[in-house]
Design brief:
It is a single chain. The protein is an alpha+beta fold. The chain contains 10 helices and 8 strands. The strands form 2 sheets. A 5-stranded mixed beta barrel has the order 1-2-3-5-4. A hairpin with a 2-residue loop joins strand 7 and strand 8. Helix 5 runs antiparallel to helix 6. The two termini are 33 Å apart. The mean pLDDT is 94.
Length: 323
């Protein structure tokens, strides 16, 4: 597989890539051209198709896999492929989707071991029951393991949601132990807070995208709806009304502020710790990936050449390793 992240000016591209996005545009003089965002599991790169070749790609759409021939060049600090021939469609029957979409590194089995160890160690039968509403369900586990953490941004990978939730749980549990909070309760919040992403995000040939439900309701609302359906299927008295509200509160408050999607700010110590653990996982992943982003750090740049849209700031990649 071509490693798009390491391509430099002058490198040749003679590979199959997936069209993640197609933008039809016109030049100032009115001539048509197309900007293709091309990608595989290692990242993305753009290519311009000029008017002489536009008709040759009339059937190319987001999700198409094409044979790309060209040379990498840098224009205004951004890498792109200068095509030497129009991209040619590859028959869909020969496509392995996993080759073209990013996948979370590592073995998901190890992540499930962490989750199941947390479940097993819970002293409260009711807290264990709350987690098991979802995480004892094999069908849910399979869907959860395949879901990205986001369509774009942090943990935007197949399996990214599983990685993110284990990171959040690990951070929140450590913070709860330090602050003498209820470790099992914050663990339940960590495991349930993003369950709505299973219904909010989907995977297609073009990459990761919001589902119809995700676009209309977003993952926080969907998570509470999923939880409510499970709760209503239980016998009366399985949880007290207050306990049910607290489970919903974890989901509804974990974004911290209403302007960031939260219905309410965290109102308990455990909910507050969950919020910051969620932020630490998301922004930590953003830093890890953005410091390796060749669009931000061409050649041997120490500081990013522009702001990271994911972090809303320029960032520094230290040159001293502290050895």
């Amino acid at each position: 597989m071509l490693d798009l992240a390491t391509l430099a000016a002058g490198d040749r591209v003679q590979h199959e890539l997936m069209v993640r996005q197609r933008e039809d545009k016109t030049t100032k003089s009115g001539d048509p051209f197309v900007v293709l965002t091309l990608g595989n599991a290692s990242g993305t790169i753009s290519a311009n198709v000029w008017k002489e070749q536009v008709n040759a790609i009339s059937t190319v759409r987001a999700g198409s896999v094409v044979q790309v021939l060209g040379v990498v060049e840098v224009y205004q600090g951004k890498r792109q492929v200068k095509l030497t021939a129009p991209p040619r469609l590859v028959p869909t029957r020969s496509i392995n989707l996993e080759e073209f979409l990013p996948r979370a590194p590592g073995d998901p089995t190890a992540l499930w071991r962490d989750i199941d160890a947390w479940r097993t160690a819970m002293a409260s039968k009711r807290l264990r029951r709350a987690v098991d509403l979802f995480f004892a369900d094999d069908d849910f586990r399979a869907r959860f393991e395949a879901t990205p953490g986001a369509p774009r941004g942090h943990h935007a990978q197949i399996g990214g949601l599983l990685v993110h939730v284990v990171e959040v749980g690990t951070i929140a549990r450590a913070a709860a132990a330090t602050m003498r909070a209820n470790v099992d309760l914050v663990t339940v919040g960590a495991l349930l807070h993003d369950i709505g992403k299973v219904e909010a995000y989907g995977i297609s040939a073009a990459g990761f995208e919001e589902t119809q439900a995700g676009a209309l309701l977003k993952h926080i609302v969907l998570g509470s709806l999923m939880l409510e359906r499970k709760l209503r299927a239980l016998p009366d008295g399985a949880f007290t009304p207050t306990q049910e509200l607290e489970l919903h509160h974890f989901i509804q408050s974990h974004h911290g502020q209403p302007e960031f999607g939260a219905a309410v700010r965290p109102m308990t110590l455990e909910a507050e710790l969950l919020h910051w653990a969620d932020q630490a996982s998301a922004n930590g992943n953003n830093f890890v990936e953005e410091t390796a982003n060749p669009e931000l750090f061409p050649a041997e740049s120490e500081f990013s050449v522009k702001k990271s849209w994911r972090l809303d700031r320029k960032i520094w990649r230290r040159t001293d390793t502290w050895d």
